Amino acid sequence: MSVSVGMLDHFNIRTRNLAETVRFYEDVLGLQNGARPNFAFPGAWMYSEGRAVVHLVDISATSEPQKPDSGVVHHVAFASRGFGAMKAQLAQKGMAFDARQVPGGELWQIFVRDPNGVMIELNYEAAKEQADVAPVETAADIGTKVAF
Known about the structure:
four-stranded mixed sheet; 31% strand
């Protein structure tokens, strides 16, 4: 029998800003706040296409320190659709973001940070997107950290 880790199921964010974080994932990324087990601690589960992909834990009532960023995890990525619409939505909401093309042009990306400093990478298959919204490929697109 072979072994496989499989696909990413979800990621978890421990936050002192639960309401603001829920709003970001709902209003900016379009996830839905949905059903969550009745844990003994507050939080929220954010759904994409019927799956709880972001788990939020409210640590505001605890002495646990809020990490200012995502620690050693550089970013979390989603396979996404609607590159042009997402760029327009981020701009309309005044969100800082970086749109780029992976060298070779087959993958387009948008990077944006959530209210906790977690970098979110949104990946779009270029062949499934409208050609008129392609980002410009630059030398900076080659394996560099996105800074904004």
